[in-house]
Amino acid sequence: MHKTPSSRSRQTPVSIVWFRLDLRVADNPALAAAAQRGAVVPVFIWAPEEERPWPPGAASRWWLHHSLTALAKDLGGLVVRRGPSLAALRQLAQETGATAVFWNRRYEPALRARDTKVQQGLRADGLTVESFNSALLVEPWEIRTATGGPFRVFTPFYRACRKRSVPPPVGRPGPLRVRLAKSLRLDALELLPRVHWAGGFPWQPGEAGARRQLRRFRPAEYRANRDRPAVAGTSRLSPYLHFGEISPRQVWHAVADEDYRWQLFWREFAYHLLYHFPHTAEQPLRPEFEKFPWRQDAAALRAWHQGRTGFPIVDAGLRELWATGWMHNRVRLIAASFLVKDLLVPWQAGARWFWDTLVDADLANNTLGWQWVAGCGADAAPFFRIFNPVTQAEKFDPAGVYCRQWVKESAPPLVDHAAARQRALAALRTLRASRVSF
Description:
The protein has 3 domains: 11-134, Rossmann fold (3-Layer(aba) Sandwich), CATH 3.40.50.620; 136-169 and 208-276, Serine Threonine Protein Phosphatase 5, Tetratricopeptide repeat; 279-434, DNA Cyclobutane Dipyrimidine Photolyase, subunit A, domain 3 (Orthogonal Bundle), CATH 1.10.579. Helix content is 45%, strand content 6%. It is built from 19 helices and 5 strands. It has helices at 7-11, 29-37, 58-75, 85-96, 109-124, 154-162, 207-216, 222-225, 238-242, 248-254, 258-276, 298-305, 312-324, 329-342, 347-357, 363-374, 389-396, 401-406, 417-429, and strands at residues 14-19, 39-46, 79-82, 100-104, 128-132. A 5-stranded parallel β-sheet has the order 3-2-1-4-5, with helices on both faces. α3 links the parallel β2 (39-46) and β3.
């Protein structure tokens, strides 16, 4: 319920904290800054139109609903509004007497532009506005090559980052003086699917769920098991990191395993690339691949969506994705390679499917992963590196446990892999006139 600020409350500085993908209380610099200043008005603004062409997909919206529910409980309340964001923040400042607005930064191209506009508008109104880094270990502009440009290869990027120390995370600010205002019911945002397809999702969104998942992770077993989809050998923290329910600093200091920390910096590399090359969410980083002779094959793409390619490990991955909102990373590589190389379907089509169905759908990581597999991005696997789905299954699921869990039937393969490989290589040779480096 909205309450008019009393004379006493007007003497206490009031700050709005605009929550986005930072849905936690601990190690949240925007929230900590507001709490130190005085009373806090926590708000989430639903404005998917401002995120186009990449508004949250269906699985992400499911997660977001439950994560916001958990955050509201952790804070003791949460104001929910609809966009446009600038208008919503202006109205909330007027209602609450807030004189400052704090948020944690986003790095997607559309949202960087939106945030600049919001910042300029609020400062023009006389409000204090400040943004913080809560999502990354290293800001994209802080690391440069020797010539002053952005990195395009991971290993030197990683070496440059490792020269920097990672500050320890901070705890929950407290006690929080939360000030609420008129709010929409979360259900009014209609984030949950109308058809109950997410009933089997094995996840606990929210900050408590992130802590629980971190406790379950066994770093000592990570190197041996991370590529085995039949074993719970990975951290499965990716959705919690994406939604900011746990910070990378918290994970870094909790997990001392260097192989796993390497993966954290692969995530950092993805953000570095998207920040410096914002066009890559839609277009290849290597422009010569714009001439690649992709095939527009709706039937093949649909079979891939449904996990009906006839290759068990590919089909298992796509079915795991549909049933759980997640797919093992090794299987993501195999399934993606099959789509772009065996079927020659454009990588953007696969990126769109992952965007809609993954609970950890993240624009930077999704872009880097698909361009890596397609051979058209930074530090990419060469296009002629074509995963054989049969030998990949033999190597990483030798007993067939993972494949049998998701695929009960046998089916004719959609393509002959050997022939498809030759077709892909022939397509690659058409780019030789463009002087593609192999």
